[in-house]
Design goal:
Oligomer: heterodimer
Number of domains of chain A: 1
Helix content of chain A: over 70%
Strand order of the largest sheet of chain B: 1-2-3
CATH class of the largest domain in chain B: Alpha Beta
Radius of gyration of chain A: 16 Å
Number of strands of chain A: 0
Distance between the termini of chain B: 33 Å
Shape of chain B: elongated
Number of domains of chain B: 2
Order of helices and strands of chain A: HHHHH
Structural class of chain A: mainly alpha
Shape of chain A: globular
Number of strands of chain B: 3
CATH topology of chain A: Arc Repressor Mutant, subunit A
CATH topology of the largest domain in chain B: Phosphorylase Kinase, domain 1
Largest interface: A-B, 41 and 50 residues
Distance between the termini of chain A: 46 Å
CATH architecture of chain A: Orthogonal Bundle
Structural class of chain B: alpha+beta
């Protein structure tokens, strides 16, 4: 049996902490501005790989690599495993 | 972190991925030459690489729209109060004071060192729910404003119903 407050806890679990993501992106922009832009355009702008490549004047392969690496970085930052000081 | 340091981490990450996973640890041990922090950073990134989830794969506004839809569903089911959800007395005071212009803050949906993101209700000229990003006093530096501008530009690039419009921008007395 699930207590009602437990049920609500589950229902209200935030999918994504936008404010924390915003801050992690600012940190990323300081060490790797292009990767930060890729995330802005793809995630906030809703652009696909090709459109992002066109806006940034880089190849789709580079967008894909940047995207994967930026997500690795952001996941570390958002889980509190900061790479800074490394 | 210095950009040069980050580039070194990236190169090591790429090289490590080229190795068979069985010899990866030994490779990093050798390549990092006793720089434990460097090795740890590369290992943290490699650990993320193994994860195959859908992190950030859906555009921001789809994620936000789902969150809002779920909140509204919770409201109509009567389980949650439509009153502002506030974490502390200080937040309550802030929420009361931060009813500004046509907007009234309903619920905090995110918070960080820079400020917070709120679900809000706009009354004029149409009644609708909007998201408001509040930046703390002292944080409205040039850097923050530049970021707003770049987000606004990124959003303006696309004309799609799932993508947010930047409706308004301004400052409050606080």
């Amino acid at each position: 049996m699930l207590r009602i407050d437990e049920a609500l806890d589950g229902a209200e679990a935030p999918g994504l902490d936008f404010a924390a993501l915003d801050e992690a992106l600012i940190a990323l922009a300081k060490v790797d501005p292009r990767k930060s832009r890729v995330v802005e355009l793809r995630f906030f702008g809703g652009l696909n790989m090709e459109e992002t490549a066109e806006v940034l004047k880089i190849s789709s392969d580079t967008v894909l690599r940047d995207w994967k690496m930026a997500k690795n970085w952001l996941r570390c930052e958002l889980s509190g495993e900061t790479l800074d000081g490394a | 972190m210095e950009p040069e340091r980050w580039q070194r981490i990236e190169r090591l990450y790429d090289s490590a991925l080229d190795q068979e996973s069985s010899v990866r640890a030994a490779f990093l041990e050798r390549a990092c030459g006793g720089d434990e922090a460097l090795r740890r950073a590369v290992e943290l990134l490699l650990a993320q690489h193994e994860k195959d989830d859908d992190f950030l794969e859906a555009p921001a506004m789809e994620v936000a729209a789902k969150d809002l839809a779920r909140d509204q569903q919770a409201d109509s089911s009567g389980f949650t109060s439509p009153a502002p959800s506030v974490d502390s007395e200080a937040d309550l005071i802030a929420a009361e004071q931060l009813s500004f212009g046509p907007y009234r803050l309903l619920q905090k949906i995110g918070e960080g060192g820079m400020g917070s993101v709120w679900l809000a209700e706009q009354r004029e000229p149409v009644r609708r729910r909007v998201a408001i990003k509040l930046i703390k006093t002292g944080m409205n530096t040039r850097e923050v404003m530049v970021r707003f501008e770049s987000e606004r530009q990124a959003l303006a690039l696309m004309d799609h119903p799932a993508i947010a419009m930047v409706l308004d921008a301004g400052t409050t007395p606080q």
